[in-house]
Amino acid sequence: MIKRLVDIGAVKFGAFKLSSGLESPFYVDLRSVLGEPELFQWVIERYEAVLSGLEFDVIIGVATGGIPYASVLGYRLKKPMGYVRDEAKGYGTGRQIEGADVAGKRAAVVDDVLTTGKSVLNAIRAVRASGGEVAGVVVFLDRGQCGAEAVKREAGVYVYSVYKMRELLEELRPHIGEERYRSVLDYLSQWRC
């Protein structure tokens, strides 16, 4: 299934500018997985395996990449689900967290990809501001660019990942060629967390 991530363009190699502003020789967009039912199920099962080690009451998806995964996980695990907007709405109820109430509950925060940790830190702040506690953050891919360390340092919350980019890269190595493999490995080596 790992190779399917490349086949469908969920993992791409080239020159990319990330939302964090960083330049990268690879790009991971797990939204592509949503259109591939078997791969989507495989990804969900990997999330479930990681979540099985956490004690939590509610699942909170990070907008927008974490929302579909959090939705399915909430359904499958029979846990209330909600999601965190980037910022509170300027209309209606003005809420930043939609869906499940987190007050007095332990939340598992779910996102697809972690780079700098900025989006996850925003979600953690929102959960706490709404009276909840964060049991942990679960991502499919930690790009290995110090995001997990930033979350731990700034919020005291541990990030659990299905894959770290170096692990994913090792599994993809036979499918992407040595030159791409080395290029990404060299890029990742600049981050010392």
Walkthrough of the structure:
Its EC number is 2.4.2.10. The chain has a domain at 37-167: Rossmann fold (3-Layer(aba) Sandwich), CATH 3.40.50.2020. The protein contains 7 helices and 8 strands; from the N terminus they run H-E-E-H-E-H-E-E-E-H-E-H-E-H-H. It has helices at 2-7, 37-51, 67-77, 118-129, 147-155, 165-176, 178-188, and strands at 11-17, 23-28, 58-62, 81-84, 97-99, 106-114, 133-142, 159-164. The chain is globular, with a radius of gyration of 17 Å. The model has no long low-confidence stretch (mean pLDDT 94).
CATH topology of one domain: Rossmann fold
Average predicted local confidence, pLDDT: 94
Q: What would CATH call the architecture of one domain?
A: 3-Layer(aba) Sandwich
Tally of contiguous helical segments: 7
Element order, helices and strands?
Answer: HEEHEHEEEHEHEHH
Largest sheet: 6 strands, mixed
Portion of residues in helices? 25-40%
Instruction: Report the principal-axis shape.
Output: globular
Structural class: alpha/beta
Strand elements, count: 8
Q: Please report the distance between the alpha carbons of the first and last residues.
A: 30 Å
Strand content: 25-35%
Detail the poorly predicted runs: none
> What is the radius of gyration?
17 Å
**Tell me, what is the CATH class of one domain?**
Alpha Beta
Function: Catalyzes the transfer of a ribosyl phosphate group from 5-phosphoribose 1-diphosphate to orotate, leading to the formation of orotidine monophosphate (OMP).
Catalytic activity: orotidine 5'-phosphate + diphosphate = orotate + 5-phospho-alpha-D-ribose 1-diphosphate
EC number: 2.4.2.10
Keywords: Glycosyltransferase, Magnesium, Pyrimidine biosynthesis, Transferase
